[in-house]
Amino acid sequence: AHNEENSVKACLASILEASRDPVLVQESVKVFVVLDCCTDTTQAIAEAMGAQTLRVSARNVGFARAAGAQAAISAGARWLAFTDGDSEVAPNWLSAQLGHHAQGADAVCGTVAVANWADYGEKMRLLFSATYVDRDGHRHIHGANLGVSATAYQNAGGFEALDTKEDVVLVESLEKIGAKIAWSATPR
Fold first, then answer.
1. Cβ atoms within 10 A of the Cβ of 126, count?
2. How far apart are CA 19 and CA 13, in angstroms?
3. Which distant-in-sequence residues (6+ apart) come within 8 Å of 69 by Cβ?
4. With contact defined as beta carbons under 8 Å apart, do 159 and 170 qualify?
């Protein structure tokens, strides 16, 4: 997160709801918020909601995601689920990812929906509507809806410190090592 005080509460509320999915009855879920050069109240909001926070000063999404992944792995995580501080996940987000993992997937690339196009403009909305595939078998990669086993993540070399496309590069690295990727519209 970078100065996400206006959206992080809704984001974390959705993650916490997903962590209470009855399907996850035997799963321990820890929520980490990586605060990348935050100067607002994002940290206070995240901590008040029970998230563990980690401060970095990189202004680099790849670096921030890698720091969060390392913190989770150090805490014993076997599965890493990533989203963005301005995103909200579905109530079955985690259970859907872990369901694919139980069926042999090393990683899950989910789909996204945009609730508010105000910041993107009509041209972008029309392009998205014309080209986006929201069904199983899609080939979209979104850091806002990505899950990966800790083992596969480490074997692929983790996130690179890239300003953009860190998620794409990770998935390409997973493919290179032969990881099984579920391209699913189920985790939202």
1. 11
2. 10
3. 80, 82, 153, 158, 159
4. yes
Q: How many residues does the chain have?
A: 188
Tell me how far apart the alpha carbons of residues 92 and 78 are, in angstroms, rounded to a whole number. Answer: 18
User: Rounded to the nearest 5°, which phi and psi values hold at 179?
Assistant: -65, 145
> 0.85 exceeded by the pTM?
yes
Residue given tokens 């401060």 in the structure block: 55
Helix axes 8-19, 93-102, angle to 10 degrees: 50
Chain centroid offset of residue 19 CA = 14
Asked which of 24-33, 96-105, 174-183 is least confident by mean pLDDT, the reply is 24-33
Q: Which residue has the tokens 């099984």?
A: 180
Query: Could you tell me where the DSSP H helices lie in the chain?
Result: 8-19, 42-48, 61-74, 93-102, 122-131, 150-155, 166-176
Judging by beta carbons within 10 Å of its beta carbon (0-12, 13-18, 19+), is residue 187 exposed, middle or buried?
Answer: buried
Residue 25 clears pLDDT 90, i.e. is over it: no
Q: Which two tokens stand for residue 54?
A: 């980690």
Q: Helix axis angle, 166-176 relative to 61-74, nearest 10°?
A: 60
